[in-house]
Amino acid sequence: MTLRLVVGAATDVGRVRGHNEDAYLVDDQLGLVAVADGMGGHQAGEVASATALEALRAAVSSGDGVRDAVTAANDAVFEKSTSDDRLRGMGTTLTVGTLAAGGTLLLGHVGDSRAYLLHDGGLRRVTVDHSLVEELIQAGEITEEEAESDPRRSMITRALGIEPNVDVDLYPLQVASRDRLLLCSDGLTGMVREAEIQTVLRDEPDPTRAAQQLIEAANAAGGVDNITVLVVDVVDDEDATASVPIVGPEPPVEDSAPALVDAPADATDAAAGRRRRRGWRVLVWVLPVVVVLGVAVGVLFWYARDTYFVGNDHGTVAIYRGRPGGVLIWDPTLEQRTHLRTSRLPADQRQSVLAGHGQFSSLSDAQAFVRRLQREATPTTTTTTSTTTTAPPVTAPPSTAPAVP
Ligand code: MN
After folding, report:
1. Exposed site from 41, 206, 278, 283, fewest CB < 10 Å?
2. 87 and 205, same domain (yes or no)
3. Is residue 318 part of a domain?
4. Which residue segment(s) compose the domain that 367 sits in?
């Protein structure tokens, strides 16, 4: 038995986006197929997906197993993103399949692109999305149906190239002649229901035409994202009665595909990893923005509130916290009243206090200024000179301050 892959591939920008950040890789010699959905501003997404596929191909061709090859792709994207400011923060999904000896097709997977297997006419999704809505489904917080229209659908919780290390999900599949695999970006699965995908894959024997039909279906449904589809037929060259037409971009390879050996997937480990990550890896794209906004608000708040001034409160001198007139939503607040009538101040100081005098870094600095005002104030007719000059500032908390005529 000599299995090989016959691939029909298509990618399309869709009907909304300006450029296509998806990419795919088909290498017949290596028995290697992959889909990558890049993301990042200013065309960095295109760089991310292309860089990942290039590094993946190089690693597999030098003998790496799937997990190591995906790790090498992560290294390549991360390195490029951290060494070029214009590419900072870029990332990509990566779903890759390699055909190994003995009819094992090993899938490696990071992100929300998907792999499906069509076997005996039945379609089964193989990969689990690393997306926020998938985690909400698994946690029982929303249903599959609700997820289809959830505005957070495109938020992924794991991507290649974002961090120095990446967790790779591995799925070993035992495949046979006439099995058909679908690798696709979320531009297909976000627009076309699985039942319709299944119909196309079952009814169109030519893999290239099947891929094109799926792209047309996604565009007919709106085409809001880039769409990439690989229809991968498993073909046995020694199966003379094979009804699957052999249509591929390259002539048949006579030798068997190179044996790609990889460690077996540890399913329980992967499940535990998913649970661990649920808490902190959510929203890798949103978190930095939230942090920057938080710091900006904090600095503004500090600027608005970390100062005192002396002003006028209904005809008496008072100490306020904040800045005269306020800053954005933060108005100054009355911190302390005094019994000093504003009208008793010399003319220039009265003007200054009415406008809000000084930026004192502490309450006691402001109180010291009030004591100075008290010394310079003209005595009232009912107060003797001695008490005016020696009395400490009379202060009281706002709620209990008695009105002094
Ligand atoms: Mn996409």
Report:
1. 41
2. yes
3. yes
4. 305-382
- As a whole number of angstroms, the distance between CA 351 and CA 346 comes to 9
198 shares a domain with 93:
yes
Instruction: Report the separation in Å between the CA atom of 277 and the middle of ligand 1, taken as the mean of its atom positions.
Output: 22
192 and 319, same domain (yes or no): no
| Ligand 1 center–CA 191 separation, angstroms | 11
Domain boundary among 185, 218, 236: 236
Q: Based on the fold, state whether residues 334 and 222 are members of the same structural domain.
A: no
CATH number of the domain to which 152 belongs: 3.60.40.10
335 in any annotated domain: yes
| Distance of CA 225 from the midpoint of ligand 1 (Å) | 6
Residue 309 and residue 232 share a domain: no
Of 183, 205, 236, the one marking the end of a domain is 236
Residue 161 alpha carbon to ligand 1 centre in Å: 16
Dihedral sign, Cα of residue 18, residue 163, residue 181, residue 5: positive
Q: Give the pLDDT confidence of 95-122 residue by residue, as tens digits.
A: 999 998 888 999 999 999 999 999 999 9
Return the minimum-mean-pLDDT range out of 4-8, 158-162, 288-292.
288-292
Q: What's residue 242's pLDDT?
A: 45
240 confidence band (pLDDT: 50, 70, 90)? low
382 Cα: distance to centroid of ligand 1 (angstroms): 82
CA of 251 to the centre of ligand 1 (A): 31
Q: Indicate whether 376 belongs to any domain.
A: yes
Q: Are residues 188 and 309 in the same domain?
A: no
Tally the residues of the chain.
405
Distance 46 CA to ligand 1 centre (A): 12
- Residue 188 Cα to ligand 1 midpoint, Å, equals 8
